[in-house]
């Protein structure tokens, strides 16, 4: 049984936490190497979560738009791969190949980065301005695990564009929801 979890409210202006993690491309990536001129979107995702699987096609299109607008994007998988083998590094690489990811997909094997960020679920979105100060901790859109309606407001994209333009995120944010991060015992 997958426990549904919601993210906490945004702690505005909280600094991004440094990381140095192995990506599915075989290279190590850091906070500094992932940020871009207009900000950074840090996403905690995984392979097996039905919430992530449901939004992945839309998410990939939307993050490409953000990247073209000068916003950096990185995804991190922190789940315990011993308990959830679908989330192993090898399976992360397979997902990356299948979907032709346009951003680094990093393995947080020790789960230290997820703990530093206070990540609670997949997907969990952290939107930072160009000073790497937190401005968004909301959802992709209203769809959750369902297919998005044609008029679904792209909340994440709109928030990241606002952050890129003004340095500040929207005051009202609706929490993301998903499966809890699978912590090691």
UniProtKB/TrEMBL annotation:
SUPFAM superfamilies noted in UniProt: Thioredoxin-like
Source species, domain of life: Bacteria
InterPro entries: AhpC/TSA (IPR000866), PRX-like1 (IPR047262), Thioredoxin-like_sf (IPR036249), Thioredoxin_domain (IPR013766)
Pfam families, per the entry: AhpC-TSA
Domain Thioredoxin residue range list: 10-165
Any GO MF annotation of the entry: antioxidant activity
Bilayer-crossing regions: none
Protein name as annotated: Thioredoxin family protein
Source organism (scientific name): Candidatus Berkiella cookevillensis
């Amino acid at each position: 049984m997958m426990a549904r979890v919601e993210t906490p409210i945004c702690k505005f202006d909280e600094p991004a936490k440094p990381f140095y993690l192995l990506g599915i491309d075989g290279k190590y990536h850091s906070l500094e190497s992932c940020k871009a001129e207009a900000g950074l979107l840090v996403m905690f995702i995984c392979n097996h979560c039905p919430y992530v699987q449901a939004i992945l096609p839309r998410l990939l299109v939307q993050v490409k738009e953000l990247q073209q607008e000068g916003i950096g994007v990185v995804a991190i998988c922190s789940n315990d791969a011993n308990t959830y083998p679908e989330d192993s590094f090898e399976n992360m690489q397979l997902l990356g190949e299948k979907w032709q990811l346009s951003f680094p997909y990093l393995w947080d094997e020790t789960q230290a980065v997820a703990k530093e960020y206070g990540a609670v679920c997949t997907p969990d979105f952290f939107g930072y301005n160009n000073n790497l100060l937190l401005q968004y901790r909301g959802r992709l859109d209203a769809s959750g695990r369902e297919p998005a309606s044609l008029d679904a407001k792209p909340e994440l994209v709109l928030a990241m564009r606002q952050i890129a333009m003004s340095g500040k995120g929207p005051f009202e944010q609706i929490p993301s929801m998903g499966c809890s991060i699978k912590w090691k015992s």
